[in-house]
Amino acid sequence: MVIAEDNALLREGLVLLLSSSGHEVAGVAATGPEILPLLLEHRPDVAVLDVRLPPGFRDEGLRAALAAREQLPGLPVLVLSQYVEETYAAELLGGGARGVGYLLKDRIGRVDEFLDALERVAAGGTALDPEVVAELLARRRDDPLDSLTPREREVLELMAQGHDNGTIARSMVVTERAVHKHIGNVFAKLGLPPSDSGGHRRVLAVLAYLNA
């Protein structure tokens, strides 16, 4: 994998954490212009990129991620940010792309959660920080989301975070059958075609709807 982070302490901490977890860090970058050449050189299984990097500290990491995915279609990208920045999240997730993640940096401290999210993205799945999901849901008012029951909204949030039916059932302390029923109701109310594939297509469909 390739890491892009300007904070030297956090960057080295990520390298140590990932290396000790059995991952190979092929390259590191500290500025925006360094990212694309590194990604094209190493073609990593996944890229972990900070959103704001030198020289402008605006959206260098995100722009590099989007440019890299144009030249390396399907490149899994996990973006890290200090704050919930809806525009960045929506742009990265636009079009229902596979292999994308958006986490707040505080999530890195929860090592198991961070590694689980990283592996999910590397496998072509989706990993969204719960706070990012909440922001995306909150900004859409006066639409079909308003028709969801509290339980259905909870299921939708957990789906958007990338969890499977079993995990959702355990989190909500209900049966998988109940989760399946809630998911069916969510798709019906949002006007989305149901999917029994069990994969990430349903998550991506919901994300595409949220970012339409």
TrEMBL record:
SMART domains hit by this protein: HTH_LUXR (SM00421), REC (SM00448)
Key words of the record: DNA-binding, Phosphoprotein, Transcription, Transcription regulation
Domain named HTH luxR-type: residues: 141-212
One example GO MF annotation: DNA binding
Top-level lineage group: Bacteria
A Pfam family it matches: GerE
UniProt modified residues of type 4-aspartylphosphate: D50
Domain Response regulatory: 1-120
Keyword Phosphoprotein included in the entry's annotation: yes
Any GO BP annotation: phosphorelay signal transduction system
Key word Iron present: no
Name by which UniProt lists this protein: DNA-binding response regulator
Species, as recorded: Streptomyces gardneri
Phylogenetic lineage: Bacteria, Bacillati, Actinomycetota, Actinomycetes, Kitasatosporales
